[in-house]
Every structure is written in C-alpha cells, then in structure tokens.
UniProtKB/TrEMBL annotation:
It is an enzyme of class 5 (isomerase). InterPro entries: Aldolase_TIM, Ribul_P_3_epim, Ribul_P_3_epim-like, RibuloseP-bd_barrel. Its EC number is 5.1.3.1. Signal peptide: none annotated. The keyword Ribonucleoprotein does not apply. Substrate binds at S9, H65, G141, F142, G143, G144, D174, G175, G176, G196, S197. PANTHER family: RIBULOSE-5-PHOSPHATE-3-EPIMERASE (PTHR11749). Pathway: Carbohydrate degradation. The lineage of its organism: Bacteria, Bacillati, Actinomycetota, Actinomycetes, Kitasatosporales. Belongs to the ribulose-phosphate 3-epimerase family. This is Ribulose-phosphate 3-epimerase. A divalent metal cation binds at H32, D34, H65, D174. Keywords: Carbohydrate metabolism, Cobalt, Isomerase, Manganese, Metal-binding, Zinc.
Length: 218
C-alpha cells in the first residue's frame, strides 16, 4: 500500500503525564498537538511553553494544530518552540499565503486546515504554498466526536486537485478517525491520519498505532 502516517493526538492523553504519554506511542510518525484558545473553538488546551517542554521530552516530531484566533501572530512562535509542522486554520488567518511562507522560512512544514463547512475549491491556487492540508472530519474543539462521512467527497476532490497539480503535499484527516473509519479515509485519498481517542483510549496505544497503520495501508 501507499506510504501512510499515523499521528496520535495528545488531546486524548493524560495532560498530567504528557511526557510518558508521548513516549507511549513509540512508532508514531508525528505527535499531534491540539492548541485551542477558547476563542476560535470553545475549548482551552495548551500553548507555547507546553510545546517547548514536549519537544524536549520526545524524539517524535510535533505536528501542532492551531485552533486559535490570529494565527498570523502566533504560529511562528510554535516553530520557535520546536514544532516540525504547524497547521493554521484558513478561517482564522488574515494572510494565509504570507503565513505559510513565514512558517516555511522559519524551518517547519506549513499546513492549512479546513473546518467541515469550508470548501477546498477557493484555495486551489494556494496548495503549492503548503506542505500539508488538513481536512477536519469533525467540528474542531473536542476529541471523541463521531466521524463526519459527508467529508469523504471533499477528501476525494482534494486528492484529485493534488494529483492534477502534481504536488507533494500531504493530506491529513482529523476527527473520529478509528478502526471503523480509517479505511474509508485512506480510500478517499488521505495519507496522514490523526487519531486521539482511538489511540489513547486503547489498552496499548503503541499497538493501536500499528493496527491503524496496517488498516490504512490497505
Ligand atoms: C479536535 C482535534 C482532534 C482531536 C481528535 O478538534 O483537532 O485532533 O484530538 O480526537 P478523536 O480522534 O478522538 O476524534
Ligand atoms: Zn487536531
């Protein structure tokens, strides 16, 4: 099968034991870190100082998903904190092209996220500026929500745009990704899979990562 990546989301981990929880998913490609600010989404998680500490606590690179207002102002600080990939939401960004270029110039992978009701088509011309596109398969804000099947056509159309332009960018899905939904996501064209409750809710998180990878490879 194709090259797939499994990124456990520490939103579903025990925040009092983040270092151990990061180490419990040995074999994961990236650690997905959900940053929420109580403004862009109705939930509050963690910020730059915690990302700095996490970057020191694990060898797994950090995939920071910023669900925050004014990412133009804050995203560069997450690169400086040690994130290897920084995702901002297009709905929140004032100048997405400038921001993606700044993230890349600072040395991280630049990624842009779309909420479920945000279409991909208006952003076709931006794709070459990005290293990854994130299609949310739940409304951002909380772990453990049900996967939105109605996002599958958007994943498929995005994969077609990536192919049409011959781009290298990765296509990530986030929200409700589990043993019962990951195959549909992979079949639609996703190649990077975020999983929170499906990994940290399992008795053996590292085994859950391996099982998801096997399923996604088809
Ligand atoms: C939701 C976050 C997700 C969340 C996914 O807003 O962006 O990363 O942790 O959790 P699950 O996999 O449980 O849906
Ligand atoms: Zn996320």
């Amino acid at each position: 099968g194709m090259a797939v990546q499994i990124n456990p989301s520490i939103l579903s981990a025990d925040f009092a034991r983040l270092a151990e929880e990061a180490q419990a998913v040995e074999g994961a490609d990236w650690l997905h870190v959900d940053v929420m600010d109580n403004h862009f989404v109705p939930n509050l998680t963690l910020g730059v100082p915690v990302v700095e500490s996490l970057a020191r606590a694990t060898d797994t690179p950090l995939d920071c998903h910023l669900m925050i207002a004014d990412p133009d102002r804050w995203a560069p600080q997450y690169v400086e904190a040690g994130a290897g990939s920084v995702t901002f939401h297009v709905e929140a960004a004032a100048a997405p092209v400038r921001l993606a270029r700044e993230i890349r110039a600072k040395g991280a992978r630049a990624s842009m996220a779309l909420k479920p009701a945000t279409p991909i088509e208006p952003y076709e011309d931006l794709l070459p500026e990005l290293d990854m596109l994130l299609i949310m398969t739940v409304e951002p804000g909380f772990g453990g929500q049900a996967f939105l099947d109605i996002m599958l056509p958007k994943i498929r159309r995005t994969r077609e745009l990536i192919s049409k332009h011959g781009l290298e960018l990765w296509l990530q899905v986030d929200g409700g990704v589990s043993a019962s939904t990951i195959e549909r996501c992979a079949e639609a064209g996703a190649d990077v899979f975020v999983a929170g409750s499906a990994v940290y809710g399992a008795a053996d998180p590292a085994q859950a990562v391996r099982a998801l990878r096997t399923q996604a490879q088809g």
